[in-house]
Amino acid sequence: MALNRAMIFLGPPGAGKGTQANRAAKRYGVPHLSTGDMLREAVAQGTELGRSAKPLMERGELVPDNIVMGMVEERLARPDSAQGFIFDGFPRTVPQAEQLDKILARRGFGKPLVVEFHVSPETLLHRVSGRWTCSVGGETYNIYERPPKVPGICDVDGGKLIQRSDDSPDIVRERLAAYDRKTKPLADYYRQHGVLETVDGSKGVEEVSRELNEIFARAAGRDGHL
Ligand code: AMP
Question: Cys-Cys crosslink for 60: which of 47, 100, 130, 174, Cβ 3.0 to 4.6 Å?
Answer without folding.
Answer: 174
